[in-house]
Amino acid sequence: MSSTPISLKLFEIGAIKFGSFKLKSGIESPIYIDLRLIASYPELLKQISQALLQKVNRETYDVLCGVPYGALSIATAMSLQSGCPLIIRRKETKSYGTKQVIEGVYQSGQRCLIIEDLITSGASILETAKDLQTAGLKITDAALIIDRQQGGVQHLQKEGIRVHALFTLPEILQELEQQGKLSSDVVQEVLTFLENQKTQVPQQKRILSYSERAQLATNPVAKKLFALMEEKETNLAFNPDVSSKEKFLKLVDLVGPFICVLKTHIDILEDFDESVIIELQKLAEKHNFLIFEDRKFADIGTIVQMQYCQGMYHIADWADITNAHILPGPGIIEGLKSAAPNKDRGLLLLAQMSSKGSLFTPEYTAQAVKLAEEHSDFVMGFICQQKLTDDPRFVHMTPGVHLASSGDAIGQQYNSPEFVIGTKETDVIIVGRGILQADNPSEAVERYRKAGWQAYQQRLEPALI
Ligand code: 5IU
């Protein structure tokens, strides 16, 4: 069997088909490639993995990692044949909370060879490379079976990754034609299709720093926040969800030097009186942080106006930031905005929640982005679980962050600071119990600050971003 060319074998098992196929994008294609079928043909899998191992100098890597899922079996077969250890990248990290994105044994600084079945734009390889890099691995090479010749190799080259492909798609077509499996008409049709499909090599995105975004922000509180984050080197927000004002103020004084935002649920305090606000404002001045009352307004414009400015708490008087659900429509934003006309105030829109079974849908989240764009003088950003827009003016703040736990018994789901800032590309981590319930909260607050800040700095580095 190993004497049969791999390309012919791929055709024989139906991993490469010719005809008329409707792709996910709706486009009609004269060719269809599904290399996952290889896993069902052990001899072919062996032949392919041997060929891939021969393609890349063994001196250039320490571990192997297949892009999930198509290349997992290939990478495993390569590992078995070469004795080179394998690591696995999880694709669905979210539902696993703080569990590792990368499974297996490896050390920071080791070189990882990425294995893939097919390359089109290179996006899947880059995504895997980014997770591996976040885990401290070095990525210089990727080995794969087929290069569709649609820009992916050049894209990866720009990002510092050399691609070793067993075949280009035109080479396979030529081989099949020579073997009498394809007519020259079909070959020509497929080549023309591929030419028309050529993807643009995407421009490398440059990540803006917090201070650059301070210049661009259209809301005054967002401007202040971005600037102070850079100045204090912190993207950590803390919520001391405790019920006594004494404990609350003590904690705030303790964490103040390490945070950019202090998030409150003022109605949790059992002994609330005006002195809390006076002391809180003094501490905000002393330690240079902003105050965010996590009030989650959800009523019609006129009611939220009153809830924001009146009642026991007079939130608009002391909270730089508050937040609102968009369920009632744009009136809630207009109501809150008109309630604090002469103050620098910012509103965060609730676009996603961290809790299990949350009813937020992608369409609803997209509406939050649209409303933010339409009210960018007052709306400063989002409470969310991932970056929602490339618009640099908006701050993305993410609750549900913990270094040691994956959730609580009543629905909270946690991710790590590295995952939230590095992979999900949000801006601020919101931490409560991770610090509050730590044996040593003052040590924990610095640990969270450092983890969040390092993830941000890594994101700013141009390579592979
Ligand atoms: N919070 C969430 N998830 C959300 C939203 C708010 O946890 O989606 I919107 C609040 C609740 C709590 C804080 O005040 O963020 C998280 O605290 P812990 O880190 O202690 O779970």
Cα-atom Rg, whole angstroms?
27 Å
Indicate how many domains the architecture comprises. 2
Tell me, what is the CATH class of the largest domain?
Alpha Beta
Quote the beta fraction. 15-25%
Low-confidence runs of at least 5 consecutive residues = 94-98, 200-204
Terminal CA distance reads: 42 Å
What's the CATH topology name of the largest domain? TIM Barrel
Helix coverage percent of residues?
Answer: 40-55%
Ligand types: 5-iodo-2'-deoxyuridine-5'-monophosphate
Structural class: alpha/beta
CATH homologous superfamily annotation of the largest domain: Aldolase class I
How many strands, which pairing sense, and closed or not: the largest β-sheet? 8 strands, parallel, barrel
Number of helices: 18
Instruction: Please give the CATH architecture of the largest domain.
Output: Alpha-Beta Barrel
* Widest sheet, order of strands: 9-10-11-12-13-14-15-16
Q: Choose one word for the global shape.
A: elongated
Quote the average pLDDT: 93
Number of strands: 16
In brief:
The protein has 465 residues and is of the alpha/beta class.
Written description of the protein model:
The structure is a single chain. This protein has 465 residues and is of the alpha/beta class. The chain folds into 2 domains: 6-202, Rossmann fold; 210-464, TIM Barrel. It contains 18 helices and 16 strands. It has helices spanning 6-12, 42-55, 72-82, 123-134, 152-158, 169-178, 184-197, 210-216, 220-232, 245-255, 274-287, 301-309, 315-318, 331-339, 362-374, 417-423, 433-436, 441-460; strands spanning 16-22, 28-33, 63-66, 86-89, 102-103, 112-119, 141-147, 162-168, 236-238, 261-264, 290-297, 321-324, 346-350, 379-383, 395-398, 428-431. The chain binds 5-iodo-2'-deoxyuridine-5'-monophosphate (5IU). The site of 5-iodo-2'-deoxyuridine-5'-monophosphate has 16 residues, from strand 16 and helix 17. 5-iodo-2'-deoxyuridine-5'-monophosphate (5IU) binds next to strand 16 and helix 17.
